[in-house]
Design a protein that fits this description.
mainly beta, Tachylectin-2, Chain A, Jelly Rolls, six-stranded antiparallel sheet, 33 strands
């Protein structure tokens, strides 16, 4: 790979996030090959090295020791005679089941080769593997590629592979049009069909993509677990939301996934517009009981035209997943990984304050890279919340409507909203108060807002594109006063070095 030409504005360009992962230059989409090995978190991603819109897909590559600070590495996988390199996963082959590592451990990547059938324009998607002897720095593609194909299925991609200790087999879950298929293997090379899931289950408002399957603890008890299946659905113009991600909760016996909820029940990972194709890291240390994932922070509805110049797209912050018992059943919970606390700088702590109409307790603050944790008492008023990235002409509102019991992000005046007719808008979802309280945990980073409502019961992720001078903050209430029990504000420092 040729090193990208980097300007003197390295990582300080307009709209450039300061603590989210972005490529140095050019186009990025789905996270791929997320695996922990030898003290490093590997993040591969769909990458076009020659342009800022979607193009011939490669696997870009970066590593981190703390999920916060990332080191860019050369491209991991490049297109070849079998096609482009679409999404997939990576695993640690600890016991050398593949035979690639002379009895030692190593990394194996499982990905989709994408081209067309000979003498045809019909897309062809087949599964292939590659392996690395040097902690992912270089890769050798298996000479017998592809290892799995099915001529009857056109959309057959994004393999997520993991080791299932109960059956002593590798499991592959793969998107197959409007369903997912499960395959098993003893060696990562020879795959046997096990079952299929998805017909008449959940949402089918677009092609199914980027599956992930894992166990999560229930209510923090590691002895009680259920399986969770993530499925992203592509953009269909007839539906307002564009691309987004759903999840299912159930049981998995090594061959078959059984949905715990009724087939017509649809559960969403994120109720904003800009969290897609999220998958989780495999092979975390045995003493780390977390399941950590991140998503591509964009939406296929407008991803190719967002108003950045040198690069395009970012990832969400890494999030820890769990399951919680609720009065409507088990539901997903998300929380920012604790490692993000390492970039906190100046702080302001408020306790037991009253927010009055037309009075702003944060009027002295100016920032567009920060974290806020705020707890409000729900009183007899209309609405309350926080306005961020604010100036005379721009603002993004994170609020709560007391009557409808809905949390929302309103980005209609958030800055540049005219690059696509679907971008400007207000996104909302129900959130019941807990003990008559609403808690916002908010991350803002130059061109994004991520809100965790009531400790991750509801999560919303939205891109915004304000001018850098729009850096004011306002606590507000409408229809009366609201009690602010507590607020923590933290400036967040950049995780990128500005020189090469």
């Amino acid at each position: 790979m040729n090193q990208p030409e980097i300007s003197y504005q390295y990582y300080t360009e307009k709209y450039r996030p300061q603590y989210h992962f972005t490529p140095e230059v050019n186009w990025m989409n789905d996270p791929n090959g997320m695996v922990f090995y030898e003290g490093e978190y590997h993040l591969f991603y769909q990458y076009h090295p020659n342009g800022t819109t979607w193009g011939p897909m490669h696997w870009g590559h970066a590593v981190s020791k703390d999920l916060v600070h990332w080191e860019h590495l050369p491209i991991g996988l490049e297109p070849d005679e079998n096609g482009m390199i679409f999404s997939g996963s990576a695993v640690v082959d600890r016991n050398d089941t593949s035979g690639f590592f002379n009895g030692q451990s190593g990394l194996v990547a499982i990905f989709t080769h994408a081209d067309t059938y000979p003498n045809s324009e019909r897309p062809r998607q087949r599964q292939s593997i590659a392996y690395s002897h040097d902690q992912g720095r270089s890769w050798k593609k298996y000479e017998g590629n592809p290892v799995l194909s099915d001529e009857e299925i056109t959309d057959f991609r994004d393999p997520k592979v993991f080791w299932h200790k109960e059956t002593n087999r590798w499991i592959m879950v793969i998107a197959a049009g409007q369903s997912v298929r499960f395959y098993t293997s003893s060696n990562l090379i020879d795959w046997e069909f096990a079952s299929e899931f998805g017909e008449e289950h959940g949402s089918h408002q677009g092609v199914w993509e980027c599956p992930d399957l894992f166990e999560l603890s229930i209510d923090g008890d590691h002895r009680k677990k259920k399986w969770v299946l993530f499925l992203s659905i592509g953009d269909d113009p007839s539906f307002e939301e564009g691309s987004r991600t759903q999840y299912f909760i159930g049981d998995f016996d090594g061959k078959t996934f059984t949905n715990l909820n009724s087939p017509d029940k649809t559960l969403w990972v994120d109720r904003g517009r800009d969290n897609y194709a999220g998958v989780s890291w495999s092979d975390l240390p045995v003493d780390d009981h977390r399941r950590i994932y991140l998503g591509w922070m964009s939406n296929w509805r407008y991803a190719n035209v967002t108003p950045t110049k040198e690069w395009r797209s970012s990832m969400t912050i890494p999030r820890s997943l769990s399951l919680a018992s609720t009065n409507v059943g088990l539901r997903l919970r998300q929380s920012p990984v604790k490692e993000l606390e390492s970039i906190r700088q100046e702080s302001i702590i408020l306790k037991k304050k009253v927010i009055k109409e037309n009075e702003n307790l944060l009027k002295e603050l100016k920032s567009n890279t920060f974290e806020i944790i705020a707890e409000f008492e729900v009183g007899n008023i209309d609405e309350f919340g926080i306005k961020v990235c604010q100036s005379e002409n721009e603002e993004t509102t994170i609020g709560y409507n007391v009557e409808t019991k809905k949390m929302f992000i309103d980005r209609k005046m958030s800055g540049d909203v005219n690059f696509h007719k679907s971008f400007a808008g207000k996104h909302e979802a129900e959130l019941e108060p807990k003990g008559n309280k609403i808690k916002f945990h908010l991350f803002v980073d130059c061109s994004s807002v991520e809100v965790f409502g009531n400790d991750g019961e509801l999560v919303m992720t939205d891109l915004i594109f304000p001018d850098s001078s729009s850096n004011k903050l306002t606590l507000y209430s409408i229809g009366g006063e609201v009690n602010l029990n507590s607020l923590e504000f933290y400036m967040l420092k950049s995780t990128w070095e500005y020189s090469r």
